[in-house]
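Page 47, continued from p. 46.
Same chain as before, 113 aa.
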Amino acid sequence: MPRNMSFAMTTEQMYRRQKWVTRRFGWWFLKPGDIVNAVEKGMGLKTGEKIVRICQIKIVETRSEPLNAIDDTDCILEGLPELDPLDFIEMLTKKYRCDADKIVNRILFEFLN
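Result:
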């Protein structure tokens, strides 16, 4: 049974199929070929709210790297071409209160449906 991965910060990009990479401070168990349900929100649901599935994705590649290793190409692959790498790093370090060199799991995926 596929696990649910939240795309709360990039929901629109997922619906538009404009995102092919995600960075996570976890999900280290993923391997190429794994199938995951991309969902709008996975935690913090209010009473009566249900998980809304966007689509299913298939994991192509995972690798660990520092957050600040992101480049312009990966900003595009993250679905955020309007951000440069420094903007992207600032966005995540503020949200997750972490250092720019924190190790992330860079996950490349493809859309199944």
